[in-house]
Amino acid sequence: MNGKGKVEIVRATSAEFRRLTLSPMLVYCLICAFLPALPLLTALAQLDGDVTASQSTALGQTMASALLQGSAFGAAAFGALRTASAFDSGVLARDVLLSGTRPALVARFVAAATSGAVLAALVVIIGAGMSALCSTGHVLPTAGWIVAAPLVGCWGGIWGGLCGTIVRLPLFVLFAALGPLSITTLVTESGIREAMPLAILETTATPTIVSACAGIAWLLLLLAIAYISGRRRPLL
User: Fold this and answer.
1) Could you give the CA distance from residue 121 to residue 144 in angstroms, rounded to a whole number?
2) What are the CA-CA distances from residue 76 to residues 38, 85, 135, 144 (Å)?
3) Are 61 and 128 in contact (CB under 8 A)?
4) In the list 84, 139, 150, 211, which could disulfide-bond 173, CB 3.0-4.6 Å?
């Protein structure tokens, strides 16, 4: 990539981040990301404080898993809605005319991944504080899960961005982005369950090689579908 291409990518990315600061969508997705953890927070508030060390560890892992799953959902919803809206409203077409196809798409995915990482970090930090408050300090997510939050959010943002590139209608893109992620909670057969996108976030079993690679494999599959569909449909 030449120097002019890099300048165009930086310019397109800066323009996208400026638009993000004016959009309340990230706040809405941040609020929605807490939904999976709300039942657990309610249950923690009803504890009488007599919690053993093993129970505290188990509850902390469950809370961390719920927060990370919510982060993935929130980041995916944000990336999907932003990308589909950009196609539907013509914003992406304008960026393509101003900066070129590659800079416009790179800027879109950089913004989605970065916003997802920030959203996930905020969800886990705020959720950890609420968990400690509701349980009077007895239940806290483990440090390893907190460190993983930006990676989960980045993954979710890219997932949503790819779904938005494939399904370019804001009304339907949430079903395409969140539907496959929701399957994990409905599948009971272990062999299929560990191949789901968010299988590595499950606390019911030790993560396997399949569950660890499933998320990346699903992203690559979506990338291939987005590339093929993009070749058949013009951006403008």
Assistant:
1) 13
2) 19, 14, 29, 22
3) no
4) 84
Q: How confident is the model at residue 75 (pLDDT cuts 50, 70, 90)?
A: very high
Q: Cα separation of 150 and 141, whole Å?
A: 15
Q: Where are the alpha helices (DSSP H) in the chain?
A: 3-21, 25-33, 38-45, 53-89, 91-99, 101-134, 143-166, 170-182, 190-193, 209-232
Spatial separation of the C-alpha atoms in residues 89 and 218, rounded to whole Å: 28
Return the pLDDT at 50. 66
Identify whether the C-beta of residue 154 lies closer than 8 Å to the C-beta of residue 117.
yes
Sign of CA dihedral 204, 210, 212, 213: negative
Q: Which residue has the higher pLDDT, 203 or 175?
A: 175
Rounded to the nearest 5 degrees, what angle is found at the Cα of 19, between the Cα atoms of 66 and 35?
Answer: 15
Q: Are 219 and 236 in contact (CB under 8 A)?
A: no
CA distance 106 to 108: 5
**What single-letter DSSP state applies at residue 203?**
S
d(CA 33, CA 70): 4
Alpha carbon distance 63, 69 (integer Å): 10
Provide the residue type at 63 as one letter.
M
